[in-house]
Amino acid sequence: MGCMKVIVRHFVGLLAFFTWLSGTIIIAICLWTIATSSNFNQLIDGKLPVTYFTLGFGGLLFLNGLLGWTGASKKNSILLKLFIILSFLIVLAEIGAVITICIFKANSGQLIDQTWQELNKKSHNIIQEQLICCGLNGPNDYDSSRDIDQSCFYREPDLPKNVGENGLVISEDPPPSNFAKERKINQIGCRSKLTDWFFDNRLLVLAIIGSLLMYQIITMLLTSAAISLGRRRRDDDSFEELETGSNHHLHHHGATYM
C-alpha cells in the first residue's frame, strides 16, 4: 500500500509539472505577442478579449500545475483538492472549446477578425506565408505598398518563349536555362483561408483537445486516488496507535493487579 501511494503521488507530481509548463509556455507566448505589437494600450482599455481568455487559461494552467506539484511533493491533501477543482474548471473550458469548434463555420468571421487584430506583425507574416494570402481581407488592408511584407508576395515563373499558353512547344529552340520570374502579390485575404483551414482540420483540432481533456481527467483520477490512499494510510496509522495504546494500558493494569 505504501509503495502504491508513492508511485501515484509521483505520477501526480509529474502530470502537474507538465500542466505548469504548458501554462508557462502559453503565458510567455501571450506576453511576447503583446510586447511586439501595438496593442498594449488596448490591453489596458479592455479591448483584447482573445488575449484575456488566452492569458486567463494559461494562468489557470500555471496555478493549477503549481498547486498539484507542491501538493504532491509536500503530501498536502488541501492543495491536491484545490488541484482537482481547478482541473475540473479546465475540463469545462476545454469542453467549451470543443463546442465552439463544432459551430465554428457559422460564427468564424468575428472570431478571426478579433484574433487577427490582436496578433503581432510576425504572426501575420507567418500566416500569410504558410496559407499564401495577404492581409485579413486582401492587400488593400495595408496603407501603402511599402507596408506590405515579403510574405504577401510569390514568384510565378514566366513561360519560356518556345512554349505557348497551352503548354505546347511552338518551336524547337531550346528554352533558356534561367528564365525570368515575375514577382506578384497575393490578392486573397487570410480570413477565408483561415476559415477553410480550421474547417478542413477541425477533426485534428478536436483530437488534440480531446487528448488534453483525457489528460486532465486522468490527472484528476490519479489525484483523487492519491488523496484516498493518503487518508487510508492515516486512518490505519491512527488505528494502530489507538490499538497499541489500549494494549499498553491493559498490560499496565494487569501487571498492577498481579
Task: Describe what this molecule looks like in 3D.
Keywords: Disulfide bond, Membrane, Transmembrane, Transmembrane helix. This protein has 258 residues and is mainly alpha-helical. It has 2 domains: 2-138 and 191-243, no CATH class; 140-185, no CATH class. Helices cover 70% and strands 4% of the residues. It contains 8 helices and 2 strands; from the N terminus they run H-H-H-H-H-H-E-E-H-H. Strands 1-2 form a two-stranded antiparallel ribbon.
List keywords for this structure.
258 residues; mainly alpha; 2 domains; two-stranded antiparallel sheet; 8 helices; 2 strands; disordered C terminus
In terms of topology, how is this protein built?
Elements lengths: L1 H34 L4 H6 L3 H26 L2 H26 L5 H11 L2 H11 L21 E5 L23 E5 L4 H11 L1 H56 L1
Antiparallel strand pairs: 1-2
Helix pairs in contact: 1-3, 1-8, 3-4, 4-8
